[in-house]
What we know:
Elements: E1 2-10, H1 18-28, E2 32-38, E3 41-49, H2 50-62, E4 72-79, E5 87-89, H3 113-119, H4 163-170, E6 191-195, E7 201-203, H5 207-216, E8 221-224, E9 229-234, H6 238-248, E10 256-258, H7 262-266, E11 269-270, H8 273-280, E12 286-291, E13 307-311, H9 316-322, E14 329-333, H10 345-352, E15 358-362, E16 374-378, E17 381-386, E18 396-408, E19 418-427, H11 437-453, E20 460-464, H12 470-476, E21 483-486, H13 488-499, E22 506-516, E23 522-530, E24 535-541, E25 544-545, H14 551-554, H15 557-568, H16 578-583, H17 588-596, E26 603-604, H18 607-617, H19 629-637, E27 649-650, E28 656-658, H20 660-671, H21 676-702, E29 706-710, H22 717-729, E30 733-735, H23 747-761
Parallel strand pairs: 2-5, 8-15, 10-13, 12-16, 18-20, 20-21, 22-29, 24-28, 29-30
Antiparallel strand pairs: 1-3, 1-4, 2-3, 6-7, 6-15, 8-9, 9-14, 10-14, 11-12, 12-13, 16-17, 18-19, 22-23, 23-24, 25-26, 27-28
Helix pairs in contact: 5-9, 13-23, 15-18, 15-20, 18-19, 20-21, 21-22
The structure holds zinc ion (2 copies) and fe (iii) ion (FE).
Amino acid sequence: MVTRSEILVRGIVQGVGFRPFVYLQARRRDLRGSVRNNTAGVLIEVEGTHGDIEKFVSDLELNAPPFSTIDSVECNHNLTPADYSDFVILESSHHAPTGEQFVPISADVGTCDDCLKELFDPEDRRYHYPFINCTNCGPRFTIIEDIPYDRAQTTMRHFEMCAECRAEYEDPLNRRFHAEPTACPACGPQLYLLESDEESKREEPGVVRQARSLLLKGDILAIKGIGGFHLACDALNAEAVEKLRQRKYREDRPFAMMAASVALIRQHCVVSKVEEELLLSERRPIVLLERRPDCKISSAVAPRINALGFMLPYSPLHHLLLKDLNRPFVMTSGNMSDEPICFDDSQAITRLSTIADHFLLHDRRIYMRTDDSVSRVHDNREMIVRRSRGYAPAPLRTGFRFLRPVLACGAELKNTFCLARDDCAFVSHHIGDLANLETLRAFTEGIEHFKRLFHVEPGTVAYDLHPEYLSTKYALSLHDIPRIAVQHHHAHIASCMADNQIEGEVIGVAMDGLGFGTDGRMWGGEFFVADFLEAERVAHLAYVPMPGGAKAIRESWRMAAIYLQHAFGDQFVNLDLPFVKDLEERCWPALRSMVATRTNSPETSSMGRLFDAVSGLLGVRYTVNYEGQAAVELEAIAERDIADGYEFQIGPTENAIEAGPVIRDAVEDLLNGVPAAVVSARFHGAVARLILAIAQKIREERKLNRIVLSGGVFQNMLLLRQTTRMLRTTGFNVSTHTRVPTNDGGISLGQASIANARIKSGRTS
Ligand code: ZN
Ligand code: ZN
Ligand code: FE
């Protein structure tokens, strides 16, 4: 008996070939009807026998194409047949009212295997075409200007399809059916090479070959990519890397690299099975890997740190450039230090002309600037460090529902914002440090773009307590909606809870750089009993002054001096330590009177600043050129496999943790000639043991066993591994970050989650 069913599939990502897949499945079972996108998802109507329809539905769920994520399949069976004669794919209908539903937009996807085969097949009409793509791969988020996702609303609208491309685009059985960015050498974007010192412009053929030889000869190329420009050079050529570093004014910050294969990366780094999968995933992040002892990479690529960032080619142009080259290349963001990555041609040519020798350009416009994502593996799981290209704007499921749409403005550094509705949080791509005017514009324009794309009109705005954050000022400028202020470290803990989809009370450990506290001081070494609604601060590092405020972050030696004074009193100047001897020249007396008179010396309980102090004390680093550098280098020198550690002291005030004993023991070790590597290891051990001790105390008093670790300090893998191991051995249920960063890139998700809990409880301030 013939019957009719309506099936609504929710959660499909647009542009992954789902409708052709449905078409094929329906044809296979001889079902009649139609499939179309609407703003709620994919709507299918089928007519046939009940048995065939059932098998059809189970096929949908079991054999869906790669990268389509099905959230739910809602069926309405046993409807009166409408006597369809055929199965057809209908044009999209977009009649659902705004604010009703949204269709998630795909992140950019690395070139698929089918396209790669064609790219290197001399018989194929797209042979060596640097912009080949299909429904399973290619640019998405970076070229979409508006919804619905149609070519006319992307930066591909300037290219009119040739007859052959159009035929593929309209053929439901073709891999390029409705592949919006589809193109070929006859009708699509073109590549060209520009010299920075002359007007000469070279077009295909031969441009890629020429670019390869320029790279191999040691030149620096600015290469227009998917989400912005890269600066590229030979990573084994120390001179080229030095030249890039000097021209970019980027003194120490590590460069990422790209290599043609995992085998090639293995020559320089240790790559585990999970890390290999991450490198090969269609999201193609930069993966931070441990350097091998015999690594041949120029030390100028990543000075004084263990980890190297590697990615595999993700665009057809990268595949063409790197094919069969047996060396890795630096592929770092095309910007001057501290500026956001360039994504516009003329802007890139102006800004990068003093850095790059040549420009490899194309005429497909980038609409949304996105940096490369950075990731790593912890606990055999991905732990994202910077969430951007390939990830954003995919929604994150939080495990709870947002009562009202919320906008969360995030932090100041490594900013992301978050728009949330229903059970989805749309955490933005990495925006960057808001101190820069252009980043601020990317922030405000990004919010408007996300509001349009995902039909979110926020009814509440959440922001950080810090009055000077530009994200806070932006939130406060929105007068017509309720505003909710969120403490920075509560947001870190909530971020990690939402990341892991957990609710209820937890022990929250926030080890961080700096965040504004509810008492107006700068927090960052905090222990809480927290849920989404409240965070009760149960212990924290004892306050010390931060002489010079922000200056004490850049001049990290100041914290070393302060902690020495804290531990030994003013007598510390008599200690026979290289750091103390150097200090004379660093004007300690001025600093001392600054602290004594409490001039420009905000108090802090930051663990990040304590890492800075120990780094300075050991002579590892006195000043920093990028955020976290002192701690990163302190971690890098630490001797592995050292079990013991110093002891913090809890008290004399009930909940203040004294670092004095740790500093005194470290100094004693140094005076006894113990190597800095061992002192560093013992310091890491001390922090891990402190976390364990406080956690055990809270567990006893509050009967809580679930512990959540967040904050920038947990980017330190030595500390993170040690801490999780100790906590697990003693039976704690430990959650760490995986889908959003433990650094301030995760703050916006935490703010949104807390705002929602406050709305639910009726506390909207
Ligand atoms: Zn493809
Ligand atoms: Zn064409
Ligand atoms: Fe933070």
